[in-house]
Here is the input.
Amino acid sequence: MSHLSLGLAGLGVVGAKTAELLMSQADIWQQKTGKKLTLTAVSARDRTKDRGIDLTGVDFEEDPVALAHRGDIDVVIELIGGSEGPARALVEAALASGKHVVTANKALIAHHGQELAKLAEQHGVQLFFEAAVAGGIPALKVLREGLAANHISRVTGILNGTCNYILTEMTQTGRDFGDVLAEAQAKGFAEADPSFDVDGVDAAHKLAILAALAYGEQIDFSSVNISGIRSITGTDIAYAGELGYVIKLLGIAERSGIRSVQPCLIAHNDQLAKIDGALNAVAFEAEPVQTVLTTGPGAGAGPTSSAVLADVLDIATGRGGLPFGRFVDTLGPSAHVPHDPEERRYYLRAMVPDRAGILSAITSILKDKDISVESMLQRGQSEDAPVALVMTLHPARADAVLAACDVLTASDFINGSVLALPILDRIERH
Amino acid sequence: MSHLSLGLAGLGVVGAKTAELLMSQADIWQQKTGKKLTLTAVSARDRTKDRGIDLTGVDFEEDPVALAHRGDIDVVIELIGGSEGPARALVEAALASGKHVVTANKALIAHHGQELAKLAEQHGVQLFFEAAVAGGIPALKVLREGLAANHISRVTGILNGTCNYILTEMTQTGRDFGDVLAEAQAKGFAEADPSFDVDGVDAAHKLAILAALAYGEQIDFSSVNISGIRSITGTDIAYAGELGYVIKLLGIAERSGIRSVQPCLIAHNDQLAKIDGALNAVAFEAEPVQTVLTTGPGAGAGPTSSAVLADVLDIATGRGGLPFGRFVDTLGPSAHVPHDPEERRYYLRAMVPDRAGILSAITSILKDKDISVESMLQRGQSEDAPVALVMTLHPARADAVLAACDVLTASDFINGSVLALPILDRIERH
Here is the structure.
């Protein structure tokens, strides 16, 4: 009977759940892989904390990097988090000393994935990170292996459960962003400092990883255009609904085009429009398969440990492969472009005083950028407060729309910033 | 540079597309696998038929089994179809002579998967059949590898695109089964003899394979309760819609329960209710991941060749594994039960004459089986023709409902058969 010895760093909720499953179901792992999996050592900040798991017989290392240097460990599981510091030091040391690495660390892979994959290649070991993208959904396996024979043209994802939960609640209850965020924080669905989630950074980490895998290119986190959901109001959601759309924070990576994370309007009967609450989803448009969509829970101890353990079982079974599906030296430069080159319809919202001449001033500014208005809605009436003026625009390029928004935002008759969101008429072609 | 030499049997639309992709994108396969993939020989019924592909330099074998005996072939791709005859002979011979096999043949695997997997084990070769289930969706890879660490409790699938297309058309246009089927046949979406699809046999093949993989048990095609969609009328769909449900042909496999393919009512806002047209979908309910759903095209040359090639690339990359995720000898007997043991609500429809006393006669028969009525609808009125009487029943066991239906169908006041469909209130728990 052959063995596989594991070291695990980071005993938060995901780490504790992973450790518990590794130990409690050893017989099942043996049945599936033909190997006896043993959790040999763990490392965490606080040795004494009660995590509800019995770690008797498992060594404890104060310094996570010590796991990388132990001769009795084959696979290091990194669940510390963060793109630098101990997580990076551990993964680098583990790969360099010939150990396989499984990590759930999206920031680490988005920023250093390439160097780490190169290190794994040089030392002939596996580096897997299924849990880094879309939680429990095996999205990377689907992309890298299940759709390996395809030419991917677009990847579209709902990649942050917190944002999707907030937008869903806003849509279903009509409440505003701040109100729903506060409730989500109280319930533990959102962090005390929510900026990583609601500003789109977390989704952008995942999108950068997906783009690299989909297009065989170097990871370039800095190429992702990021805007979050703080600027979306209940009014925007209501107007979008009236127009037949829902607002979702979407990560989009097109082969020779944008990599972006931004709120978008999608038709209410689109598959992705129906992904509600904290669920994640990733849709792959590809030839010859057409569109494959995967959905499931994007976070949480259970879903994340499912993905971490799938990687461990792949290693135990000898189902190896290159982290990005090709040798690092064959990855091309990212083919991203700074602005979305596709002409798209846009949703535009400005807060304006309710008086004559405003509409004409706005359409004149749009016309200067060759942008024409498709429809206009202005419901509320108020002599005192500004009201929302909502327009949909005929297909235009992102740079023209953004330039027009800048002029509008700077003009003295508009309160606050003008919001422009792309309308994606068809995410999926069936 | 190492090589992988392929033999392909069956040059229908899927075979021709697979051959074309193998040859035209050889450089991509080499980049991804590090191996040069060569299509060495093919076999088909008609050598001279124009398939729009150039097979110059590729050997032709009149007898597909000859592919198995050639010393210069590493992998046999079987795309002939059918559970017996040349397909079975080829796959058995190929495995027995130490060749890896990739097949899209659901009937072959549903009927002989176990013996074939055993043969693959004995000869140390791979047997993969991703394309046999849900076409372009990598559902088997998701289940066997992506969710390998999970305890699966239920698999629910829309597994036949023809049925889903017909039911979707009936729902969206209000037309009847025969009308939509005839149109689907004219468009080439349904076979001239549609029974394999509309009677649920094709979906049952796929369900039997999914159940074996999900529960680590022997494939038992005969354990699947099968009923197709011929008995569903436009009236049923309209009444179901009024009650908040859509009718889908679902394959369901529960760990210690039914394996069935039958039309079911599911809530209109359920994820699976939104899978329209010829799409397939498979939902896995599991611990610790919760629910993961995959959807995509379930048939067609492109999607199917995508799945076939993914298997070939797995073999080329050395991503092996056991066909059912475990050794054949460790597969347990199927834990299916003859009737669904879960108490469920049911939809009941009978065609009855429009006169007094009928309702009381029906409820009395139901009461004899301890079944109580939750709601009743009867819209039409006609003195000449029977009208539809629709009921929903409080939770009851399938055997009681079926027994009541038998009594009702045999009674002299009911025209034709009584239809009973389970109402699945929650396919997916989010």
Q: What stands out?
A: The first strand of chain A starts at residue 2 and ends at 9. Residues 2-128 of chain A form a domain with the Rossmann fold fold (CATH 3.40.50.720). The mean pLDDT of chain A is 94. Chain A has three domains: 2-128, 139-296, 344-424.
